[in-house]
C-alpha cells in the first residue's frame, strides 16, 4: 500500500534544512506533499503564492514530492490528501516540547495519522527561516543556507 506523507510548514522561506528533510522523507515515503501553510498571523515576508512557488522551484528535482498550499486544520488537510503520515523536523531539544504537543493534539484529533520526526544533518541543525530572514534583512549573506532561487527572491524583496 503506497504511503503518503505531509510535511507542513510556513516555509518563509524554504531553507536547505527543509529541503534536506524533504529529500529524506521522499526516500521513506511513496509520496510527500509539502504543505505550505497560509498562516497570515505570522506576518510572512513572502505571501502564500510566493512561498509555494519558491518551494516548487527548490524541490523540482525531487521525485515523488508535490508542493501545495493549505489554509485549514492540518489533520483535515491530511485527510483531504488521503495521507497517513505527518513529517515534522526537530532541529534541537528546544523544538521537542512544542512538536510533541502538536503531535499529541493531532493524535487526539486523528488517531489514524502518525507523526514522524526527522532530524537534520549537523550542517543544518541551526538553520531557521526566522534567523535567515533576519540575516537577509540586515544585509548578511544567506547563500550558504538556501537555494539560489531563494537568494534571488530575498534580494528582490529586500533590495
UniProtKB/TrEMBL annotation:
Function (record text): Reversibly transfers an adenylyl group from ATP to 4'-phosphopantetheine, yielding dephospho-CoA (dPCoA) and pyrophosphate.
Cofactor field: Mg(2+)
HAMAP family on file: PPAT_bact
Record-listed ATP binding positions: 10-11, 18, 89-91, 99, 124-130
Protein name: Phosphopantetheine adenylyltransferase
Family: Belongs to the bacterial CoaD family.
Record's keyword annotation contains Magnesium: yes
Keyword Hydrolase: no
Organism: Thiohalospira halophila DSM 15071
Keywords: ATP-binding, Coenzyme A biosynthesis, Cytoplasm, Magnesium, Nucleotide-binding, Nucleotidyltransferase, Transferase
Site residues (Transition state stabilizer), renumbered to this chain: 18
Summary of subunit composition and partner proteins: Homohexamer.
Matches recorded under NCBIfam families: coaD_prev_kdtB, cyt_tran_rel
Pathway: Cofactor biosynthesis; coenzyme A biosynthesis; CoA from (R)-pantothenate: step 4/5
Top-rank lineage group of the source organism: Bacteria
EC number: 2.7.7.3
Encoding gene per record: coaD
Pfam (any one): CTP_transf_like
One of the protein's GO biological processes: coenzyme A biosynthetic process
GO molecular function, a single term: pantetheine-phosphate adenylyltransferase activity
The Cytidyltransferase-like domain, residue ranges: 6-134
Amino acid at each position: 500500500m503506497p504511503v503518503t506523507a505531509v510535511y507542513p510548514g510556513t516555509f518563509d522561506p524554504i531553507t536547505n534544512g527543509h529541503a534536506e528533510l524533504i529529500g529524506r522523507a521522499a526516500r521513506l515515503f511513496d509520496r510527500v506533499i509539502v504543505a505550505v501553510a497560509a498562516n497570515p498571523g505570522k506576518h510572512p515576508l513572502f505571501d502564500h503564492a510566493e512561498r509555494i512557488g519558491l518551494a516548487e522551484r527548490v524541490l523540482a528535482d525531487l521525485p515523488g514530492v508535490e508542493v501545495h498550499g493549505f489554509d485549514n486544520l492540518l489533520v483535515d488537510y491530511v485527510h483531504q490528501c488521503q495521507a497517513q503520515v505527518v513529517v515534522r523536523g526537530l532541529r534541537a531539544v528546544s523544538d521537542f516540547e512544542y512538536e510533541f504537543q502538536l503531535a499529541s493534539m493531532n493524535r487526539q484529533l486523528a488517531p489514524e495519522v502518525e507523526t514522524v520526526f526527522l532530524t537534520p544533518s549537523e550542517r543544518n541543525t541551526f538553520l531557521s527561516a526566522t534567523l535567515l530572514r533576519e540575516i537577509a534583512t540586515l544585509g548578511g549573506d544567506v547563500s550558504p543556507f538556501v537555494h539560489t532561487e531563494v537568494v534571488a527572491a530575498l534580494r528582490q524583496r529586500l533590495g
